[in-house]
Amino acid sequence: MLRSKCLESIYPELEDKLVVTIMGATAQELYDLGHKENFFYLQHAMGLASSIGMGIAMNLPGEKVIVLDGDGSVLMNLGTLTTMARYRPRNLVHIIFDNGSLLSTGGFDSHTTSGITNLAKMAEGAGIPNVALTRTPLEFVEAAADAFERDDLTVIVAKVEAVGPDHFGMDLKLPENAFRFERFIREKQAKKATHR
Q1: How far apart are alpha carbons 179 and 132 in whole angstroms?
Q2: When comparing pLDDT for 104 and 192, which is higher?
């Protein structure tokens, strides 16, 4: 299955959630669907989307936080799985698009290519309470729907083809994106506070 189609299938459900993506193809494909102020594309920081997403989830327990990650990035920061399991932010969904390739940094094979390294089993072994391994679009959509409804930490590993966008380039630099994302969160929290 294609990551771009997976993103397209969940895009309407992301409108009311805080979304953090890893750099490269994932960020570009989400951006190409249409930027929203609740999207933060973590450009130039491979491996850290999960850590930032977890920090946001722990500090904003009333918000659903979605991390869109890649296998290469997760392999660079495996400790995040154990940390997530330990603190168990119930509002965090960590989606790992596993294409078996470091597609955005040269297309080299990642450790998952050979089938020896299984990120879903690693997440389970780390203690993540809800883990789904998906290989078809239907499996992915069902796992995402369950995760978005569930009030508990979830990791979804989506096996996708090593295919990326035909272009890279966003009309949104990291500092501006960070400022606008933070402003979106502040304004949303202020609205919630006035409606209590």
Answers
A1: 33
A2: 192
Count how many Cα atoms sit within 13 Å of the Cα of residue 110 in the half-sphere of its side chain: 23
What is the CATH T-level fold of the domain 3-194, as seen in this structure? Rossmann fold (3.40.50)
Cα(5)–Cα(75) distance, rounded to whole angstroms? 24
SS3 at position 48: coil
Residue with tokens 């997976």: 6
Question: What are the structure tokens assigned to 111, written together?
Answer: 């450790």
N-to-C CA span, the chain = 43
How many other CB atoms sit within 10 Å of the CB of residue 82? 15
The 10 Å Cβ neighbour count of residue 183 is 11
Task: Report which of 152, 81, 162, 93 is spatially closest to residue 118, judged by C-alpha positions.
Answer: 81
Identify the pLDDT of residue 110. 60
pTM over the 0.85 mark? yes
**Neighbour-count burial of 39, counting CB atoms closer than 10 A to its CB (0-12 exposed, 13-18 middle, 19+ buried):** buried
Whether 154 shows a pLDDT value over 80: the answer reads yes
